[in-house]
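[job 0417] fold request received: Major facilitator superfamily (MFS) profile domain-containing protein
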Amino acid sequence: MNIKNNILFKKKELFNFCTLRFIFGISYSFMIPIIPLYFSSIGISTLIIGTVMSLYGVGKALIQIPFGVVSDWIGDKLLLIIALGLMAFVPIVYIITSNNILAEGNYIVQGAVLGIAAPATFSILSRSLEPSKRGECTGYASAVFTLGGGIGAIIGGFVAYKLNSYNTVFALSSAGIFLSLIFLIFKIRKPERFMKECKKEEKKVSCRSV
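[job 0417] inference complete; emitting structure tokens
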């Protein structure tokens, strides 16, 4: 099979979206293996760590529905820009604080920000798909994020082990997330066919984007 004929490389919107997911997946996952260790190092008990991680998931889930509405209102790209901008600061907070409550609150906020990003991410994916190959396109989008997450977790754990420094990992994560934000701003665009459809609509809400 000629790789150039693969839908991932033929469809520019899908390729750019998958690249964004891959960069963010790596960058975000730098933090995954070290956060429990970081919490433990500043004196947070195992029970509290479990509770905070549970609240991370609850916050992430609950915030997705209202921000799905916000995505329709202000535009999916703008919402994702805001979410990635906020997420880039999350690792910095871990660096500058050793206060238990602030660190715990920051982790819950981290989950909420990821929840804010989710509806916008899926919205952008939906218009990046090839209509006749929706399943295949979705598979690529999911796979690159998972692959990036695996790579990022290995790198994050390795750096923390070799340098004995959580702050270095957090700094790398922040820089990578910021890089994904820059990529989003300049590379993610609405397809021409989508913009033409938008111009024909009387209601412009669904067409709002950057």
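[job 0417] notes: The chain has one domain: 29-191. Residues 134-163 form the longest helix (30 residues).
[job 0417] exit 0
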